[in-house]
Amino acid sequence: MAFTSRSEAARTAILDAVRDLLARKGFAGTTIRAVAAEASVDPSMVMRYYGSKEDLLAAALDVDLHLPDPAQCRPERLGRTLAEHMISRWEGQLADGLILMLLRSASNSRLAAQRYREMFESQVLGLIRAVIGDTPDTARRAGLVAAQAAGVALCRYVLEIPPVAALEGEELAALLAPVLQHYLTGNLTSLPLPSTLDAKT
Asked: Using alpha carbons only, what angle is made at residue 143 by residues 67 and 19, rounded to the nearest 5 degrees?
């Protein structure tokens, strides 16, 4: 069914309201009535357009990571490219509170966890496949990149572990880049040789 410009504007206002409330108050504070008040519409209009709170949240949580164009990415610099892009999405020019909200909520919300997985599978894995090729290891490499990024984001923005939270964005990107690059193109099968200290114990 085609939407009029007025109804399309209302739908946009509703989605904007949901995203703002989710970023500020999380799932518990994002009720139909709160969304309607934020969007300056009647609650019945929210239900008419989206049917249920779960459908409304699903529409609002369709997050675009705005990942770089694969054609502009070099395999040997992909770790650096991804590290810098992640920092930009967390706290830079492309910052989006919904990404961190999904991370905070994924442990106790089925919908948030599902959306986080979908975001990884449709965007992160797709970019990495396009740049380094689709091999038996590609999905594992992409998963390790996602795990590293999620872990750093959790420690920096949710747990606020002081040494991690205190890093400047550029410094964090520089530290993260070689780790991501190893996951992307390094040897994931051979174990490091025991150190001298290990050999003595």
From this structure: 50
Q: Residue 109 is encoded by which pair of tokens?
A: 């919300």
**What are the tens digits of pLDDT across the range 111-123?**
889 998 999 999 9
Provide the pLDDT for residue 86.
95
Q: Which residues contact 95 (CB under 8 A, 6 or more apart)?
A: 88, 89
Q: How far is CA 30 from the centre of its chain?
A: 20
Does residue 113 contact residue 90 with C-beta atoms inside 8 Å?
Answer: no
- Which residues lie closer than 8 Å to 97 by C-beta, 6 or more apart? 22, 23, 24
**Which pLDDT score, from 0 to 100, does residue 194 have?**
62
What is the spatial distance between Cα 41 and Cα 35, in angstroms, rounded to a whole number? 9
- Measured between alpha carbons, how far is residue 62 from residues 56, 85, 152, 156 in Å? 11, 19, 22, 24
> Can you list the domains of the chain with their CATH numbers?
5-60 (1.10.10.60), 70-185 (1.10.357)
Q: What is the pTM of this model?
A: 0.81
Low-confidence ranges of the chain (pLDDT < 70): 1-5, 190-201
